[in-house]
Amino acid sequence: MITSKLIRQICLTTVCAMIGTTTVFAADMGQATGNNVNVRTAAGTDAEVLGKIQTGSNYTVTGKSGSWYQIDYNGQIGFVSGDYFQLTETEGTVTGTDVNIRSDATTSSNVIGSVNTGDTLTAVGRSDGWYQVQYQGREGYISEDYLFGDYLSSLTVVGTANPEITQASADVQYAMVTANSGLKLRKEASLNSIVLTVLPYGTVLDVDRVGPEWVRVITDDGQKGYVSAEYVSVRSGEKPSRSSSSASAKGAEIVAYAKQFIGTPYVWGGTDLNNGVDCSGFVYAVLRDFGISVNRSSSSMASNGIEVAKSELQAGDLVFFNSGGNSAISHVGIYMGDGNYIHSTDGAAYGVTVTSLNSGYSANTYVTARRVIR
After folding, report:
1. Is 11 an active-site residue?
2. Of 26-35, 210-219, 293-302, which has the strongest mean pLDDT?
3. 77 exposed, middle or buried (CB, 10 Å; 0-12, 13-18, 19+)?
4. 224-242: pLDDT as tens digits
């Protein structure tokens, strides 16, 4: 972003004179470095708390008073301690002619453009003598010798990725978020790096680089960042579909097909949808007719696909139970939606039938669910 320096200087001078000791920012941005960070009515811990902000949410920074940032908080002026808040964007002014903007923080990287004295750039990070800037819709780097700004040194450090993170091997296809509460996608491989977004449980990601502590991933919309290796499962094989709407539509088709066989008798080891099936044989045969290959037994079938939280179930997901009264999986069915699943049982409702997940038996023996639709 390149704007006129003269206009900005006039605005800064005027507003600074009005507010005294508070230094004014020009539409700069920042975010909390933790959760439940207090926003106060003034710059001090004894000031009234207006509310709390969470990591990953961006706020417009309108000034700074000592170590406190002044932000726009829901249309009000609020103050946040610099101990729990970091600047993520600020403007700098170019101080040279034909200054190169490069693709990486090194003089050997490609030149993607140039700027001149008086131009202003939005800087989003700093790294070993370079500032990372926004330039014509992409990120680039400019030497710190040619960009001036009062608050550039307050920017978060970028380009400090763990050197142990290496290119993913050819057999690695994807990663899945395993943190139930979601996982923070960070700009760099550091807990101090800014949070780009929070990825929900079960999110499927492309893997770019891997290391013992961090994994560099690419989201469905092309955003690249780092996640903790502790909370993702890096996998090989065919990647599950990222389209929830597509998976849901196919799941509805599978359920509609499976309902045709309500009443088929229970036969241990059977896979004949018309003459007899056991629980896993029923699921196996239904999915087979849609070109979906799964393991034959209920216990081994539980290793197919990706785990799904009970609250996130959709039609076509597989639901598993420990009907034997222990922790071992011994029964499986297909979730239909609306809290029901279809399965083959040798119990009182003998054969292929529909049961509520909230029934006493189902609720007490439920173990997990897997999504196998691609």
Report:
1. no
2. 293-302
3. middle
4. 889 988 888 887 666 665 4
